[in-house]
UniProtKB/TrEMBL annotation:
SUPFAM superfamilies: Flavoproteins. It comes from the Bacteria. InterPro entries: Flavodoxin, Flavodoxin/NO_synth, Flavoprotein-like_sf. Residues 3-144 form the Flavodoxin-like domain. PROSITE patterns: FLAVODOXIN_LIKE. This is Flavodoxin. Keywords: Electron transport, Flavoprotein, FMN, Transport. The lineage of its organism: Bacteria, Bacillati, Bacillota, Bacilli, Lactobacillales. Pfam families: Flavodoxin_1. Low-potential electron donor to a number of redox enzymes.
Length: 153
């Protein structure tokens, strides 16, 4: 099982969450390939050859997608994900009005593009604490189980 992760992180919180997720996935024998969205990857290239896909982002502005996710958002408007299994994770700050708004935005874009959300999204307050790490481990387990179920059907 290969899980592809596309993430963007400015101050490191989302990067940390992705590291925790990668460890959790590897602990359950999934192979992880992570891409920094700021390095630039076309959506059709990212959404190929994986068994499951994770989008991970912080939130910018007033509940908005950060710059690193804007190209992906544009691309998603033009491609058909055709039922591909996707899960979304994000970090944010509850002192803002729209906590982890980028997670909600990414969920919407994935669904509009025909992707399947296979795990409840995880919203993390800043850098992951112990509770968030446990939530990420659960997220990893759910997405691997769901992706396996889908590939068997
Ligand atoms: C200009 C600015 C706007 C932000 N707006 C929001 C927001 O609307 N909602 C939210 O939950 N967090 C918001 N945040 C907080 C970041 O999303 C949060 O600190 C996040 O963990 C940063 O992730 P990173 O360390 O991966 O860059 C904002 C931060 C900055 C600097």
């Amino acid at each position: 099982m290969q899980v592809k992760i596309l993430y963007t992180s400015l101050t490191g919180n989302t990067q940390e969450a992705v590291d925790v997720l990668s460890d959790a996935l590897e602990n359950i024998d999934a192979e992880v390939v992570a891409f920094d969205a700021d390095d630039g990857i076309a959506a059709d290239e990212f959404f190929s050859d994986g068994d499951a896909y994770v989008l991970a982002s912080y939130t910018d502005g007033e509940g908005e997608l950060p710059d690193g996710m804007l190209d992906l958002a544009d691309d998603l408007a033009d491609i058909d994900l055709n039922g591909l299994p996707v899960a979304v994770l994000g970090t944010g700050d509850t002192s803002y009005e729209y906590f982890c708004g980028a997670v909600d935005e990414l969920e919407k874009l994935v669904q509009q593009a025909g992707g399947q959300l296979i795990a409840p999204s995880v919203k993390i307050e800043m850098a992951p604490d112990d509770a968030a790490c446990a939530a990420i481990a659960q997220f990893a387990q759910t997405l691997v189980t769901q992706a396996q179920n889908l590939s068997e059907n």
